[in-house]
Structures are given as structure tokens and as C-alpha cells.
């Protein structure tokens, strides 16, 4: 039988975010740069720059882990809101998919 993890669900979520952060931080300097975000997501650097600007608390132009976490959570919220607005505009549209 497998060994059970002793960490709580919140710790496991943070560990998952840390693994994602480390994939974005391609040079391992603990600063995710605009270019690293743009390259990882396949988006223009201007879009990555705008996203970083929203969460860059220390104004260094990079994302440390805490800022990266805020960025991901912010983008998730935007996606959820956009999805909700889309469903609200045509609730039957999604029912036909199932």
C-alpha cells in the first residue's frame, strides 16, 4: 500500500503551484521574468507584462512566488467570470454539449 501524505490539502495545492512556478522559472533564479511567462504561455510579451504589472508588489518587473500565485489566482478568477457571463448569456448552449 502507498505511503499517505501527511500534508494538508492547502499545502498540497501550494506545492503544486510551486512546481508550476519552477517550470516557468527556466533559469532557476526565483524570479519569473516577463519573457519566461510569454514563452511558457505562447503569448506576446506585452500581454505578459500587463499581467505581471497587476501583481508586481515590489515593482521589480518580475514575479516572485507570492506574486506568481496571485497572478494565477487572478487569471483563474477572470476565466471563471468570463465562463459565467458566457453561460448567463445563453444557458442552453452548454446543455447541448452534454
Strand-and-helix sequence, N→C? HEHHEHH
Profile the largest sheet. Answer: 2 strands, antiparallel
- Could you estimate the helical fraction of the residues in percent? 55-70%
Overall geometry? globular
The number of distinct β-strands equals: 2
Number of helices: 5
Strand arrangement within the widest β-sheet reads 1-2
Low-confidence spans: 94-98
Query: Radius of gyration over alpha carbons?
Result: 17 Å
Distance between the termini: 37 Å
Classify the beta-strand content into a percent band.
under 5%
Mean of pLDDT: 84
Describe the secondary-structure layout.
Elements: H1 9-24, E1 32-33, H2 34-41, H3 45-55, E2 62-63, H4 65-89, H5 91-95
Antiparallel strand pairs: 1-2
Helix pairs in contact: 2-3, 3-4
Key attributes of the depicted protein:
98 residues, mainly alpha, two-stranded antiparallel sheet, 5 helices, 4% strand, disordered C terminus
Description of the molecule:
The chain has 98 residues and is mainly alpha-helical. A two-stranded antiparallel ribbon has the order 1-2. Helix 2 crosses helix 3. The N and C termini lie far apart (37 Å). The relative contact order is 0.10.
